[in-house]
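Milestone 3.1: sequence recovery, worked example.
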């Protein structure tokens, strides 16, 4: 039950420990989302003061375990100056998502997070279905995700973990720190920290069974979660465990053309078309619907020459292709179509479009198990061991088919229909240009399998030294992640080229190249949709591309905090500690992708002279071999100094921290922060501000990327003014240095004033500047930056006059770019008991983020910084907000949720014009339509307690079935909901 409210002045006159706790309560920022966030209170024998966070009152023993994620200081009542949003377990449950990742990613300050709707078009990225967070639109690699304040082994070589592998049912709250926290937690906390806090003392049994489906009858979902906990040996031994299974069928690709999966009708093939004309008074770029390429068709199209415009149906019969736009083929070598845009017509025969085939959501199946055993060796001192073993399988379809424009077919090819062969003879040609969607070959599918094994051994508690209580947290962690990627139904490009070049020999159709024939080549008919089974097996063997990655993380950490000195305004609190971390990865791939020299051929991948020995033989999915490791040693110190404690002037304190880190690859770097809080004498108001120097170290991928080699036959050498043959090696860069960020936030909060109990408001302004941003450069940029003496670091990356071997350019990342972003967050919450005389209470909350600017400067010659704020092709709309209304009447509750983001642009660099346009330039190109709409989504949910501890619930997401913007210009699932209305229902129980 909630304690009664005490007189504030009386409490200020009470004993120092009580004053400290109450002061901390009055300084706590309201998390506008949180409803059941535990709040610190006074000992049970005294009446407790309700915290300015709405939620349940907990005991002093429980309060001592609460650590503010924005700081390493673990002292009751202390609150860091960095703004923190908290989601309690009831909010997570109320949102009724099969994956807690989705609930958190809805928060406005999270922009550009991944998940099952992102990267579905990808074949080679390795990030399909990867659930990882991005704060402030700075990317997943600049957000640190923790589990109980501890690091988690990465599920990708970029170092980001997969939240799908976390024990979700035992999560009692999630802290989202909206600001730099490198001084407290180390590398990657540039945008902030997302910290999952589990219930380590859970007792009893709780479970959740849920099912879901979309209004279109797809993405059927089944979720089962079970957790149990008990104590023994006089409450000294604590055992906690959980298991969960989740299967989401996903939403596959639609048909060739413009039909999306299961009747969705919002796809219009909206495209950004480059007219290729810069100064005719018209815009260079135009935005159009129903665009189709003139370079291929579903079952084949002759794209240039006198026979241009002849297409073929599934049976291989020729017909006149309908270009749209009243387009007339020029029937010359250029392949142009009069009346159409360069490369595209509008309307006509759209049957060969491949973009409708992208999965709208990856299918996912996850199994997660978690166990923890803790033993109190003494009061308030625990030794513990945790095990987290999980597996996540995902699969997606990148696009429909494997389109191949720009092919050349011989007129004498026996698969060419007689009418076309006769037309060739009449026109006096022996070959023609050809393009096909390859619809007859079927669709590629990518399968990922991530398996995590994580073990933590640690101890935490309190000890008294020289009259001071010290809190300690020591742990060692070992984590291993295995990621397997397998691609199915994908062609080998060189075998495809050999197979389509068919001829007749001794009355039989065979591959023209005798070497290819000797190595099993089977002729392939790509005119129409009737390839032979033998040809399909030859160009698309069952053993497709694969990648096998092993990634490990070892951590040893110690953190100590306490209040050794009682000063004039309160106790001085400090924290200090250190950490050692070792990161390692090794990846191996198939020889057809990685190269025969890197991977021994044989078995399912026999040597084939038709293939390139250097690899890159697949249509997509050419994975490479690689390995690398680095280690980190660091130490930190943090202090909180109260310097004001007055009824007239209020209470104020300074908080500062410093961390020194030594990276084995890049040396020593410092991070620091300095901030403060001022609890004003005006009831409920508090001011907070913090500035920090934050770092992000280069990850394993950036340091040790698996090499990729390509040949540049006519590369211009600016030093000698000649064209040279160059070998381009795409590699990692072990000389990279950490990115350095300056992060500043300042804000004011109003928390539960006496004149408006239950009201909480906050406003926080932020500004982040990141220098030495790690970014990749093209080969020409690397040479030009050296030649023009802009970045001499690139001079060591190439040799264009190599007497000891071939000329080379090592294409790699450098610390060159910069990012700066600015904006503000607004949070509000109000709890109204017995609204309009009704039983129960009504809670209204809202969170909003406004991005003023988000500017990236590549650092390259001839480029200008680009502001991505309001660019809805990206992840940073100008405004994004989330509002939640919850009515709780005891056995029954109702939730209404609104999600919205503002309209924006395709790109802020464009100049919009229709006629009389200025000359279009690379820096400021012209466009006729630079608008992308915002979107509003409405969700509702309800719960009903059938009996005590058994609750039925239901939820409808996107109740209005709001479609995304038409095609959303290449699709942008990072912002738009592409799924549609979703129904979920289930039952929760606890015993």
């Amino acid at each position: 039950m909630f304690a009664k409210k005490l007189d504030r002045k009386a409490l200020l006159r009470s004993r120092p420990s009580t004053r400290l706790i109450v002061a901390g309560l009055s300084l706590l920022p309201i998390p506008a989302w949180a409803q059941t966030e535990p709040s610190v209170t006074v000992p049970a024998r005294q009446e407790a003061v309700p915290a300015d966070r709405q939620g349940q009152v907990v005991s002093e023993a429980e309060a001592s375990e609460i650590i503010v994620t924005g700081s390493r200081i673990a002292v009751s009542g202390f609150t860091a100056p960095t703004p923190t949003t908290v989601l309690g377990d009831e909010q997570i449950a109320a949102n009724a998502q099969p994956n807690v990742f989705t609930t958190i990613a809805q928060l406005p300050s999270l922009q550009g997070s991944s998940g099952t709707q992102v990267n579905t078009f990808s074949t080679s990225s390795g990030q399909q279905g990867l659930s990882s967070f991005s704060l402030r639109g700075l990317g997943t690699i600049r957000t640190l995700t923790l589990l109980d304040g501890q690091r988690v082994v990465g599920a990708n070589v970029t170092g980001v973990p997969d939240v799908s592998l976390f024990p979700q049912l035992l999560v009692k709250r999630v802290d989202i720190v909206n600001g730099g926290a490198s001084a407290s937690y180390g590398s990657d906390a540039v945008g902030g920290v997302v910290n999952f806090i589990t219930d380590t003392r859970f007792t009893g049994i709780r479970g959740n069974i849920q099912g879901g489906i979309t209004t279109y009858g797809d993405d059927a979902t089944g979720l089962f979660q079970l957790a149990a906990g008990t104590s023994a040996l006089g409450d000294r031994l604590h055992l906690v465990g959980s298991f969960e299974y989740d299967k989401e069928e996903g939403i596959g690709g639609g048909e060739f053309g413009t039909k999306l999966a299961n009747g969705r009708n919002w796809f219009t093939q909206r495209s950004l078309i480059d007219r290729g004309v810069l100064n005719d008074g018209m815009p260079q770029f135009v935005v159009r619907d129903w665009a189709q390429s003139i370079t291929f068709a579903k079952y084949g199209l002759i794209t240039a020459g006198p026979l241009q415009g002849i297409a073929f149906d599934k049976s291989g019969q020729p017909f006149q292709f309908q270009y749209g736009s009243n387009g007339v083929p020029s029937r010359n070598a250029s392949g142009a179509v009069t009346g159409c845009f360069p490369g595209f017509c509008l309307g006509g025969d759209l049957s060969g479009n491949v973009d409708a085939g992208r999965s709208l959501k990856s299918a996912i199946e996850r199994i997660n198990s978690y166990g923890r055993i803790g033993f109190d060796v003494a009061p308030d001192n625990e030794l513990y061991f945790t095990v987290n073993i999980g597996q996540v399988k995902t699969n997606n379809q990148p696009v429909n088919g494997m389109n191949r424009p720009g092919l050349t077919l011989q007129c004498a090819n026996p698969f060419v229909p007689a009418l076309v062969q006769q037309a060739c003879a009449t026109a006096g040609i022996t070959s023609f240009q050809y393009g096909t969607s390859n619809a007859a070959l079927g669709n590629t599918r990518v399968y990922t399998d991530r398996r995590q094994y994580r073990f933590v051994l640690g101890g935490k508690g309190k000890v008294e030294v020289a009259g001071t209580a010290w809190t300690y947290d020591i742990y060692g962690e070992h984590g291993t992640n295995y990621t397997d990627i397998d691609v199915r139904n994908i062609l080998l490009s060189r075998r495809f080229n050999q197979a389509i070049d068919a001829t007749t020999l001794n009355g039989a159709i065979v591959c023209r190249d005798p070497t290819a024939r000797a190595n099993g080549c089977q002729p392939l008919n790509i005119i129409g949709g009737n390839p032979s089974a033998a040809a399909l097996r030859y160009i698309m063997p069952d053993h497709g591309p694969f990648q096998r990655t092993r990634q490990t993380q070892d951590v040893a950490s110690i953190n100590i905090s306490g209040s050794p000195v009682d000063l004039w305004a309160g106790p001085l609190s400090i924290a200090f500690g250190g950490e050692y971390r070792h990161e390692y990865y090794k990846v191996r791939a198939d020889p057809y992708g990685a190269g025969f020299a890197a991977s021994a051929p044989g078995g399912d991948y026999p040597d084939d002279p038709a293939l390139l020995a250097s690899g890159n033989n697949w249509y997509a999915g050419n994975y490479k071999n690689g390995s690398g490791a680095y280690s980190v040693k660091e130490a930190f110190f943090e202090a909180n100094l109260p310097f004001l404690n007055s009824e007239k002037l209020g209470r104020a304190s300074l908080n500062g921290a410093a961390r020194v880190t030594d990276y084995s690859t890049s040396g020593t770097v410092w991070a620091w922060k300095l901030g403060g809080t001022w609890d004003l004498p005006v009831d409920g108001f508090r001011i907070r501000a913090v500035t920090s120097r934050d770092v992000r170290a280069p990850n394993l991928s950036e340091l040790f990327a698996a090499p990729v080699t390509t040949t540049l036959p006519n590369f211009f050498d600016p030093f000698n003014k000649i064209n040279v043959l160059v070998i381009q090696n795409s590699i990692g860069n072990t000389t990279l240095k950490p990115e350095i960020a300056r992060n500043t936030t300042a804000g004011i909060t109003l928390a539960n004033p006496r004149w408006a109990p239950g009201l909480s408001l906050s406003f926080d302004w932020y500004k982040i500047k990141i220098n030495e941003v790690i970014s990749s450069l093209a080969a020409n940029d690397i040479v030009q930056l050296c030649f023009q003496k802009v970045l001499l670091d690139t001079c060591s990356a190439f040799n264009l006059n190599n007497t000891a071997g071939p000329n080379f350019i090592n294409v790699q990342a450098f610390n060159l770019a910069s990012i700066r972003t600015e904006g503000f967050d607004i949070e509000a919450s109000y709890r109204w008991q017995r609204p309009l005389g009704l039983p129960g209470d009504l809670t209204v909350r809202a969170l909003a983020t406004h991005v003023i600017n988000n500017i990236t400067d590549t650092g390259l010659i001839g480029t200008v910084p680009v502001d991505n704020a309001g660019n809805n092709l990206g992840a940073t709309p100008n405004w994004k907000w989330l509002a939640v209304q919850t009515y709780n009447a005891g056995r029954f509750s109702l939730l209404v949720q609104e999600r919205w983001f503002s309209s924006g642009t395709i790109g802020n660099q464009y100049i919009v014009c229709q006629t009389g346009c200025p000359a279009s330039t690379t820096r400021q190109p012209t466009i006729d339509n630079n608008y992308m709409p915002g979107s509003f989504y409405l969700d509702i949910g309800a719960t009903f307690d059938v009996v005590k501890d058994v609750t039925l619930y239901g939820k409808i997401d996107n109740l209005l079935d709001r479609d995304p913007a038409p095609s959303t210009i290449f699709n942008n699932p990072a912002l738009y909901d592409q799924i549609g209305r979703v129904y979920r229902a289930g039952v929760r129980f606890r015993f």
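Residues 644-990 form a domain with the Maltoporin; Chain A fold (CATH 2.40.170.20). The longest helix spans residues 16-27.
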